[in-house]
């Protein structure tokens, strides 16, 4: 499992204690043994995961963070400044979009909005690269670019749907607070 930069944690995520870091290291070590075919390691891993805190389980199962890291590595082409800047930008976006004291639903929707933003940016960049005039290597056929454009369009729709849903949830929360006030 790729390491995700600590800056890429969701809003409200706690800094991990040394005990939690140790537990994650232990889980990864036992996981590697299980992956190598050790039957007993698999059973031990199951017990360790079951007895771990929700924060450790969330970190160990951060599929979205791993996917974001893959996209960041792809679009940055290994340039450390771009990698760090994108991770920091995503962290800032999470904090700004989620706001103070976000509900669990707002955190989930914030993650979806930020992930959608990154995917749209990466797809736009990759498609734009196909239109460069000075490309001397193999150019992809127009059909491929059309297919990539459709994928971009779909990703953009999903991104905007997440933005709308987050706005809708917040409007419902405001409306609910107004109705619950005694008059």
What is the topological layout?
Elements: H1 18-35, H2 39-50, H3 54-60, H4 63-76, H5 80-98, H6 104-129, H7 142-180
What does this structure look like?
The protein has 183 residues and is an all-alpha fold. 74% of the residues lie in helices and 0% in strands. It has seven helices and no strands. It is flat, with a radius of gyration of 21 Å. The N and C termini lie far apart (54 Å).
Question: Summary?
Answer:
The protein is an all-alpha fold and 183 residues long. It is built from 7 helices and no strands.
Strand content: under 5%
Overall shape = flat
Assembly of the depicted chains: single chain
Radius of gyration (CA) equals 21 Å
End-to-end distance: 54 Å
**How do the helices and strands follow one another from N- to C-terminus?**
HHHHHHH
- Number of discrete domains: 2
Unreliable segments of 5+ consecutive residues: 1-14
User: What would the average pLDDT be, to the nearest integer?
Assistant: 85
Instruction: Count every beta strand, where a strand is a DSSP E run of 2 or more residues.
Output: 0
Q: What's the story with the biggest beta sheet? A: none
Which key phrases capture this entry?
183 residues; disordered N terminus; mainly alpha
